[in-house]
Amino acid sequence: MARILPQTKSAAVNPLKSSQPLGAAFAFLGVDGAMPLFHGSQGCTSFALVLFVRHFKETIPLQTTAMDEVATILGAADHLEEAILNLKNRTKPKLIGVCTTALVETRGEDCA
What we know:
The protein has helices spanning 15-18, 20-29, 42-56, 69-74, 77-91, 102-107, and strands spanning 34-39, 63-64, 95-100. The protein is α/β, with parallel strands linked by helices.
């Protein structure tokens, strides 16, 4: 017979360990001259940015394609292209790492 053991501590999920785009951005930040670009809404990027700043206690360079409601419905390939060109012209990174958020993945947009 199975024995059920009661939990003595409350459940806590570390968002730094459960978010795929956040993990991808963290990996890109480890590459010299790389700039992570979140393909999604500004809220997804600001969530990641707040977690990174709290964790590292310094400013972290994260960029976003800033998808709005129209881009979410009609597609945001043009937002991605515009963000990459702006990022290339402004900061001239050696590598731009595109991290797709749940918004883009739910929509089924192919960014590969």
